[in-house]
Amino acid sequence: MSTGPMSDGENYRPDWGSLRGHRVPDWFRDAKLGIWSHWGPQSAARSGDWYARHLYGPYDGTEEFEQERAGRQTAAHRKRYGHPSRFGHKDLCGLWRAEKFDPEALMDRFRRTGARYFVSMAAHCDNFDLWDSAHQPWNAVNVGPRSDIVARWEAAARGAGLRFGVSMHAGSWTWRWLDAAFAADTEGPAAGVPYDGHLTAGDGRGLWWEGLDPRALYGRPRRPGEPPDPEFIDDFYARLRDVTTRHRPELVYLDDSRLPFDDGSVCPAAPPSGRGLEFLADYYNRVPEGVVSIKTVPGRDRGAVLLDVERQQLGDTDPEPWQYDTSIGDWFYCDGYRYKTPDDIVHLLVDTVSKNGCLLLNVPQLPDGTLDDATGAVLDSLGGWVERCGEAVFGTRPWARYGEGPTRVTGERARESALAYTSRDIRFTRAGDALYAFLMAWPDGHDRTVRIRSLGRAAGLLHAPPRRVTLLGASAPARWTVRADALEVTLPERPPTPFVQVLRIDIGEPGADEAGADEAGRTAT
To answer: Residue limits of the Glycoside hydrolase family 29 N-terminal domain (predicted)?
Structure first.
């Protein structure tokens, strides 16, 4: 597959007209399932996402959807670690040690789960770099683990045959997030005492962080709403180029509505910055089969950047490839958090793939780098389903319809939820002459007949009648009938897998050795 002007020996230029010649590569369209590691200093608190910001609360400007978590994390931090004038985000960086991190063992588990690509955190909104950063002294080699986390993830992923990606959240979010470190309590016994964002390198003399400057981690003192400085923007893009040059990831996840600091970004510069276009051109010239994702993409730019949809389901098939990202639990490890079930995840995967997307699934890790038993059980169950039904997922493409049935996402997109699927809910994919029908729920009662309306003769969607129908994982052949209004398939007494069941429907002329088997399953045409 051509990836744009590089095939003619030309370079991409830092403008949309040139970058629109790029295309999302086929490796991504085939991959369907990726595993993502949200893991870093914030994991040390075992209190979930946004901890590096919320530990400085309470403060004005907390987003409404974050207020409950902000209050919980603020109270927990002060009870466990003390006031943020003395113990702040910088100190968590020293606590996070990753002492049991075994990326090879983890990657083998992810591969057995079915992952075809792996994404390492490069830097979260907390501004701590997880590689041997040339521009950020607050990094995992200098502080905490004393180890290049990204390099170790990369070696493990490539060794296991997975494509490798990095996610970069520092940038716009960091500028907005860490302004909280420059505030102070407005009431109580510590009212007016500045938080640790006001500390300088000189304040570290004799302390564990001696020789490091907190300003390199937090940025300059600022108030909420101030536009980012050019120096801050330059630093972000220097670090982004550093990590992508060192590790040549095939996927770069940018956690922003548009290119960081550009018009439409969560934190646009004044005037908007064009550095993102420079990065895209440079990156695609270095990694022609790479892909960069952002979260708001006009239709005309869908080759230049990949649409990423966070914890939201699309209502219909997208004509362009896209990525759906979610987590088994909270983004960072959180004690007591309710995890998704394997059933939830399989349903999300199937619905996403049927609509031309890939699922990027975050796996919350304990601070020491291991997985808890509940996470391991989810991965093992997902891997068992993939072993039986993966042919209907990997390397497939959308069919004429993504599915049928009463249960669907309302509107163009909606917040993810565990939908109450019925036996009438079907999702489809295709690969060559094989059409796959995913049964989102097993029929209730004694009627074990599934009726697929889209495959009846009257629908006119098949170029030829089915010649064989197989229930993946079942030991006995399926019995099936084509009627005007539906393809009817009689299912066995028990489902062959614990989750979504899959019918493989072969269409086209059978080979000589297949003809007898084809007739055995057919009861009418």
So the answer is: 8-391
Domain boundary among 296, 316, 343: 296
| 514, pLDDT greater than 50 | no
Same-domain pairing of 269 and 151: yes
Q: Which of 123, 114, 102 is nearest to 162 (CA)?
A: 114
Examine the domain organization and report whether 410 and 289 are in the same domain.
no
Does a structural domain hold residue 271? yes
State CA 485 to chain mean position distance.
39
Q: What is the pLDDT of residue 509?
A: 61
Phi, psi of 523 (to 5 degrees): -105, -20
**Quick check: 121 pLDDT over 90?**
yes
| 428 and 283 within one domain | no
With a CB cutoff of 8 Å and minimum separation 6, the contacts of 104 are 156, 159, 160
Quote the pLDDT of residue 135.
Answer: 98
- 403-404 β-sheet, strand order: 403-404, 426-431, 434-439, 501-507, 466-471
- Report the number of distinct structural domains present in the chain: 2
Q: Is 380 inside a domain boundary?
A: no
Element at 18 (helix H, strand E): helix 16-19
Is the omega angle on the peptide bond into residue 189 within 30 degrees of 0, that is, cis? no
In the chain, pLDDT over 70 holds for what percent of residues?
94
- What pTM, to 2 d.p., does this model score? 0.94
Amino acid at 138: W
Give the domain extent around 459: 403-524
DSSP bridge pairs for 308: 323
Mean predicted confidence (pLDDT) in 15-21? 96
Rounded Cα distance, 37 and 333, in Å: 11
The label of the residue with tokens 């940038």 reads 171
**346/386 Cα distance (integer angstroms):** 9
Cα(184)–Cα(123) distance, rounded to whole angstroms? 26
Q: Which residues of 66-85 are buried (b: 16+ CB within 10 A; e: fewer)?
A: eeebbeebbebbeeebebbb
CATH code (residue 216): 3.20.20.80
Tokens of 517: 């088997």
For the cut 70, the answer to whether the pLDDT of residue 170 exceeds it is yes
Does residue 307 sit within a domain?
A: no
Task: Kindly state whether residues 220 and 79 are assigned to the same domain.
Answer: yes
Last residue of a domain, one of 273, 296, 319: 296
Give per-residue pLDDT as tens, 366-386: 999 999 999 999 999 999 999
pLDDT over threshold 90, residue 450: yes
Residues 43 and 59: beta-carbon distance below 8 Å: no
pLDDT at 81: 97
Contacts of 314 (CB under 8 A, 6+ apart): 322, 324, 352, 355, 357, 409, 412, 413
> In angstroms, rounded to a whole number, what is the distance separating the alpha carbons of residues 118 and 131?
16
Q: Is residue 243 part of a domain?
A: yes
| CATH number of 476's domain | 2.60.40.1180
123: three-class secondary structure by DSSP: strand
